[in-house]
Amino acid sequence: MNDAEILAAFHIRRAHYDTYLEANDIRLYTCPGCGFPSLTTRGEFSICIICFWEDDGQDDNADSILSQLLAEGIKISGPNGNLTLTENRINIGYILETNAELINGEIDFDPARVLKTIAFYKQRRDEIEDRMTGDEPPYDHIWIEWKEVRKDLQMALVVPKS
Ligand SMILES: [Zn+2]
Known about the structure:
The protein is mainly alpha-helical. The chain is built from 5 helices and 2 strands. The model has no long low-confidence stretch (mean pLDDT 92).
């Protein structure tokens, strides 16, 4: 897959989950960074558990303005640094495609199952956070455990080919 195909897959995935959330009246939002239904708010700086995009409210319209400014050489700093939304989508897309190749599978497209998977790993992360005091140094084992939740979730989002 090339960048254009990764981005096309992102838009298909996001539209698919947006449709499902709306049709089932589920109060979640799709992440502008990865397209999965991982956010409980929009524009409130929550960090996506799947792709780690920090939701500063940017979305496709804002992203085009940002890309334009970057193209003009104007540096923007925000919670995601110089990483653009498009770059984030490409990065997470490649990670998921690579994971899918590892098991000769595909990125999960089943909304009910994906929602369960995300909820399961969110709970796992919450349990780790509950055990944290806030004083742990970055090399503490608990941080490694915390970071592994994202990797495990990225792996759980690929499934055998249907
Ligand atoms: Zn995301």
